[in-house]
Specification:
By secondary structure, the protein is α/β, with parallel strands linked by helices. It has one domain: Aldolase class I (TIM Barrel, Alpha-Beta Barrel). Helix content is 33%, strand content 21%. The protein contains 8 helices and 8 strands, in the order E-H-E-H-E-H-E-H-E-E-H-E-H-E-H-H. An 8-stranded parallel β-barrel has the order 1-2-3-4-5-6-7-8, surrounded by 5 helices. The longest helix has 14 residues, at 149-162. The relative contact order is 0.17. Residues 7, 31, 33, 64, 172, 192 line the site of zinc ion (ZN). D-xylitol-5-phosphate is lined by residues 7, 9-10, 31, 33, 64, 136, 138-143, 172-175, 192-196.
């Protein structure tokens, strides 16, 4: 069954209460969107805020670093004992950071932006655990799903299966009960969803609709 990683980027009020509420749902992961104001225009959470999240949840963490220079972030976020740390393919020296994350015994993800061709990462798939396909421009919650992401998922699924690789395909941005079906049928394993879940009072109802 598809796994759900809930992005907490769009939670506005009662932040910690809502983290506790999420802890009582069936979400598989909590997705932490970390932005530096350089790789993307906005800044998001501080490390201290994410430490508070960690203290208030039993869920596995899925860290998405939208930052140009991830070294310091990786060395901080390792302390939250995340399941995955994902960096972007479009930054300098990404190969070096793959090795750094691996050396910490954390699973490593590589994310590609909407304008990056998925074929570009085929030759590094044997080094990583997860590909995060951005289905919106990184930087903001609540955007519309870019349809061409579906073709990327299909190509990646075909390549992974044909080469017997063990790599998860995660999709992030504009996921709702329609786009989730398209992504699942195309072969994705993990859906990241933010506003569709957290802009609603009943988180678990929304999560159930995504899994269908
Ligand atoms: C965008 C982030 C996403 C986003 C998802 O830069 O990486 O995780 O917050 O939010 P929704 O589901 O609202 O598109
Ligand atoms: Zn994200």
């Amino acid at each position: 069954m598809v796994q759900i990683s809930t992005s907490i980027l769009s939670i506005k009020d009662n932040f910690i209460d809502n983290i506790k509420k999420l802890d009582n749902t069936s979400t598989d992961y909590i997705h932490l969107d970390i932005m530096d104001g350089n790789f993307v225009p906005n800044k998001s959470f501080s490390y201290e805020e994410m430490l508070e999240v960690k203290k208030n949840t039993t869920k596995k963490l899925d860290v998405h670093l939208m930052v140009s220079n991830p070294k310091g972030y990786i060395n901080s976020y390792k302390n939250l004992n995340p399941e995955y740390i994902t960096i972007h393919y479009e930054i300098e020296d990404y190969l070096k950071y793959i090795d750094l994350i691996k050396s910490l015994n954390i699973k490593v993800g590589i994310s590609i932006k909407p304008n990056t061709n998925v074929e570009e990462i085929f030759d590094i798939l044997d080094k990583i655990d997860l590909v995060l396909i951005m289905s919106v421009e990184p930087g903001l919650g609540g955007q519309k799903f870019i349809e061409s992401s579906i073709a990327k998922i299909k190509k990646l699924r075909k390549y992974i299966d044909e080469n017997n690789l063990v790599v998860q395909i995660e999709v992030d941005g504009g996921i709702n009960d329609n786009t989730s079906k398209l992504c699942i049928n195309a072969g994705c394993n993990i859906l990241v969803s933010g506003s569709y879940i957290t802009n609603n009072e009943f988180y678990e109802e929304q999560i159930k609709k995504l899994r269908k």
